[in-house]
Amino acid sequence: MTPPPLPGPLALLAPLLENYGYLALATLVFLDNALIPVPGQTVLIAAAVYAGTGRLNIAAVIGIAAVAAILGDSFGYVIGRRGGRPFVHRFGRYVLLTPERFAKAESFFHRHGGKVVTVARFIDGLRQINGVLAGASEMPWRPFLAFNTLGAALWVSLWASLAYEAGTDIGPLYQQAVRYQTYLLLTLAAVAATLLVRFLVRRRRPTEPGHRNARPS
User: Fold this and answer.
1) 61: in domain
2) Number of domains composing the chain
3) In a domain, 205, yes or no
4) What's the CA gap between 205 and 96, in Å, rounded?
5) Do the Cβ atoms of 48 and 160 come closer than 8 Å?
6) How far, in Å, CA of 47 to CA of 62, rounded?
């Protein structure tokens, strides 16, 4: 069956899927989860639309994408764990991960690492760097792998099932998701700023009584 024309930005990936199929899917999803901002999520959606026409197998699309996502995030974890802070400080700027941002992310990771790894797949930018952050923050391997697998399964299953059922009508739905993702990023930034302010205020409070009770020498 001839696949229908893909809507919007999905159409740019049609030649890759037609010529390389599952290999293109696996490669882009792996790279997208391994620190390199390529259209992994977009090719996952496009592959699921193709599966709806019988050109690809939806079970294979889900399985290959999930494994590629897990391996990509794990690769990032290894880089972060072995390279640590020196790696992030040297190369992080190329993916907008400055030392200041890394310090804030590391502090947040120590408290909410599992949640971050699970939901990171759904947020562009965080999807690419969360494995490196987890490794550099020395998150234990077994919990990381568990949350990594859970996040990959949720991310792949959601987008693949939506695209498979919606077909070429996925275009408007995808645009809405990208819009809400922007709102989510702004909300997360506001929450992070609030937490940072609370942390700084609490850090200063213990010193205040000492200042009040101090006597001049």
Assistant:
1) yes
2) 1
3) no
4) 33
5) yes
6) 9
Domain that holds residue 141: 8-200
Burial class (CB in 10 A: 0-12, 13-18, 19+), 32: buried
CA distance 75 to 134: 11
88 backbone dihedrals φ, ψ, rounded to 5°: -60, -45
Q: What is the CA radius of gyration of the chain?
A: 21
Task: Answer whether residue 3 is part of any domain.
Answer: no
* 59-110 pLDDT, tens digit each: 999 999 999 999 999 999 998 888 766 766 666 666 556 677 767 766 777 7
Give the C-alpha separation, 116 to 133, whole Å.
10
Per DSSP, the residues of 202-214 read HHHTTHHHHHHH-
Decide if 9 contacts 45 (C-beta within 8 A).
no
CB 133 within 8 A of CB 92: no
